[in-house]
């Protein structure tokens, strides 16, 4: 039995709500129809979304945003393509041998995402390829959310588009990262569409693709469970197909996998260290894995939280039946909202789906309850039914709705401007999204240091022997080091838990060394970590670097304003001299130093004259 509150699923929702031009009518009649107007809105939405995503992405020359994982992703995609283009299969991941991502156990849980990045490498250099791919994937992700509103005929689509644009700054910040979550949103929206249209068989290949794309694939299975429960309530029967097909796709995607069984191991590892702990991590991880507080949610997601409130207020069953689509989003988005209290990662998903919850609840709320008549009977009696005649009250009500839509739209446009550009007036200091992205680290940070690491000296000898291991003092530096230098391996990266899970004692030893708690760390770095070189950011790990140099166990072999590289000696000796290899002073720096020396000389002469007097 079909849902009594929504159009029959055998027909397109637009056909039930938007008048079609008469058969044989010309282009003029079509262009004047509501369907044509909505199509214009759809095209406008796509162009507007693409322009916004491109504008944000190119506020920085680096691969956006916040962290450097995008450099790892595009580098790995380039290595995959290098192998494929030579007729080889998967390359061996040999750059984190001390972690769970060692050559024997490595799993690429973004495999399909990395494959989809490859075509962009055919036309652009890696950094530009990653940025263009990020714009394309993010554009389709945001557009897919709007497309649901368009497809199901929800009125005032431009107001809902404005709501999507303003749902949360953090959402757009994370959409601009060159990572897999935009694909997750696209797949999830497609899955929701298949559930609503009852095209359950297509859930199997979709889930299969989801498993190959990102480790959050259980999200689609949860969606299928929610939909099954809704149908069980409304139709008093168990619809097994959504759960069966998604479960089958999940199993097949994990078994028919180029990294099986390592993919299972890493998924369990992620579940244990991230989801099951609820924020109580054994080691310090990236900020995105920690939860939001209630105050944070209200401050950073005001539009999304308001949309949730609207959805909850307007949601109401009618005639003993649940409005299926609104009920689905109520359950699905509520789970995403609760997820915000366990991890900030859900900022990539909660805000746009909160807008969908409000949109579909509003649609269901305004739809009058009418008993569903059989289709054939309705067609037979239609000629005898009186057409609906609008009253003066209806006209006033429609005018009020239109005015409210304009007011809400204008308010959302103002919010959008504030979100983008910030607000520094009336005692308010609010940084906009554009400024946050522009403040990202420079694209070429560490380039000079790693060029030295991969280069040769005056005699043609490698500065750091190929295959040597580098003790990187911070795990989040790894993506950038890997991007510039694949000649050497590293101690840890991508996630500190990868080292901790493989060898907890070694991880604890590393944290003691990098915190400067160990005086003679040189032989420990060489013997326990198998590294003879140390890489550190120029502004970090000061105590560790000082102790290594003072201990007589290390020499500074490279230093600039971004990074330092030390070499561990084979035996303890005298403390290292201050002079190290690096970039010579620039003409401007030399001029400043000369002026300082001249001033010092003049001050010295003046002091001598004063003493003589």
What is the topology?
Elements: H1 13-17, H2 27-31, H3 34-57, H4 69-85, H5 111-121, H6 126-151, H7 157-165, H8 169-175, H9 181-196, H10 203-213, H11 218-235, H12 241-255, H13 262-275, H14 294-300, H15 302-314, H16 324-339, H17 350-366, H18 375-381, H19 392-421, E1 422-423, E2 430-431, H20 433-438, H21 447-453, E3 469-472, H22 478-484, E4 489-490, H23 496-502, H24 504-514, H25 522-528, E5 533-537, H26 542-550, E6 554-559, E7 563-568, H27 587-612
Parallel strand pairs: 3-4, 3-5
Antiparallel strand pairs: 1-2, 5-7, 6-7
Helix pairs in contact: 3-6, 3-7, 4-5, 4-6, 4-22, 5-6, 5-10, 6-7, 6-9, 6-17, 7-19, 9-10, 9-11, 10-12, 11-12, 11-16, 15-17, 16-17, 23-24
Overview of this protein structure:
- By secondary structure, the protein is mostly helical.
- 57% of the residues lie in helices and 4% in strands.
- The protein contains 27 helices and seven strands.
- The chain has helices at residues 13-17, 27-31, 34-57, 69-85, 111-121, 126-151, 157-165, 169-175, 181-196, 203-213, 218-235, 241-255, 262-275, 294-300, 302-314, 324-339, 350-366, 375-381, 392-421, 433-438, 447-453, 478-484, 496-502, 504-514, 522-528, 542-550, 587-612, and strands at 422-423, 430-431, 469-472, 489-490, 533-537, 554-559, 563-568.
- Strands 4-3-5-7-6 form a five-stranded mixed beta sheet.
- The radius of gyration is 30 Å and the shape is elongated.
């Amino acid at each position: 039995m079909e849902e009594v509150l929504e159009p029959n699923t055998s027909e397109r929702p637009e056909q039930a709500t938007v008048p079609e031009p008469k058969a044989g009518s010309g282009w003029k009649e079509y262009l004047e129809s509501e369907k044509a107007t909505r199509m214009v809105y759809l095209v406008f939405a796509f162009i507007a979304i693409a322009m916004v995503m491109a504008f944000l992405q190119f506020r920085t020359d680096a691969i956006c945003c916040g962290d450097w994982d995008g450099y790892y992703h595009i580098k790995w995609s380039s290595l995959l393509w290098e192998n494929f283009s030579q007729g080889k299969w998967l390359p061996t991941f040999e750059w984190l041998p001390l972690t769970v991502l060692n050559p024997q156990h490595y799993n690429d849980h973004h495999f399909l995402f990395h494959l989809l990045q490859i075509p962009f490498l055919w036309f652009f250099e890696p950094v530009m390829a990653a940025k263009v791919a990020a714009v394309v994937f993010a554009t389709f992700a945001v557009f897919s959310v709007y497309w649901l509103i368009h497809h199901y005929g929800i009125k005032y689509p431009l107001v809902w588009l404005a709501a999507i644009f303003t749902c949360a700054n953090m959402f757009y910040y994370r959409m601009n990262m060159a990572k897999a979550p935009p694909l997750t949103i696209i797949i999830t929206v497609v899955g929701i569409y298949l559930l609503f249209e009852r095209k359950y068989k297509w859930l199997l290949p979709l889930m299969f693709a989801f498993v190959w794309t990102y480790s959050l694939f259980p999200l689609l299975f949860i969606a299928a469970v929610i939909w099954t429960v809704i149908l069980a309530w409304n139709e008093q029967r168990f619809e097994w197909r959504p759960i069966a097909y998604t479960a089958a796709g999940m199993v097949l995607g994990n078994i028919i996998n180029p990294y099986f069984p390592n993919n299972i191991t890493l998924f369990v590892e992620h579940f244990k260290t991230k989801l099951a702990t609820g924020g109580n991590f054994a080691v310090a991880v990236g900020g995105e894995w920690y939860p939001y507080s209630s105050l944070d949610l209200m401050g950073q997601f005001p539009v999304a939280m308001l949309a949730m409130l609207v959805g909850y207020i307007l949601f109401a069953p009618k005639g003993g039946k649940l409005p299926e689509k609104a009920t689905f989003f109520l359950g699905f988005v509520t789970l995403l909202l609760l997820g915000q209290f366990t991890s900030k990662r859900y900022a990539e998903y909660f805000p746009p789906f909160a807008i969908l919850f409000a949109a579909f609840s509003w649609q269901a709320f305004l739809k009058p309850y009418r008993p569903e008549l059989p289709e054939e009977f309705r067609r037979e009696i239609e000629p005898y039914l009186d057409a609906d005649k609008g009253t003066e009250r209806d006209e006033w009500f429609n005018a009020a709705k239109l005015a409210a839509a304009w007011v809400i739209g204008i308010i959302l446009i103002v919010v959008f401007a504030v979100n983008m550009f910030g607000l520094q007036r009336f005692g308010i200091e609010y940084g906009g999204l554009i400024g946050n992205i522009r403040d990202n680290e420079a694209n070429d940070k560490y380039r000079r240091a790693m060029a030295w690491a991969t280069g040769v000296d005056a005699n043609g000898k490698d500065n750091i022997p190929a295959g040597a291991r580098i003790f990187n003092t911070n795990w989040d530096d790894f993506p950038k080091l890997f991007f510039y230098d694949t000649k050497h391996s590293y101690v840890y990266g991508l996630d500190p838990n990868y080292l901790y899970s493989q060898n907890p004692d070694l991880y604890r030893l590393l944290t003691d060394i990098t915190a400067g708690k160990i005086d003679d760390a040189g032989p420990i770095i060489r013997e326990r970590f198998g590294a003879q070189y140390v890489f550190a950011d120029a502004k970090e790990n000061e105590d560790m670097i000082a102790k290594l140099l003072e201990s007589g166990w290390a020499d500074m072999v490279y230093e600039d304003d971004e990074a330092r590289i030390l070499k561990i000696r084979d035996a303890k000796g005298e403390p290292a001299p201050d002079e190290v290899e690096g970039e010579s002073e620039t003409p401007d720096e030399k001029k400043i130093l000369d002026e300082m020396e001249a001033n010092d000389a003049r001050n010295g002469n003046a002091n001598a004259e004063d003493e003589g007097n």
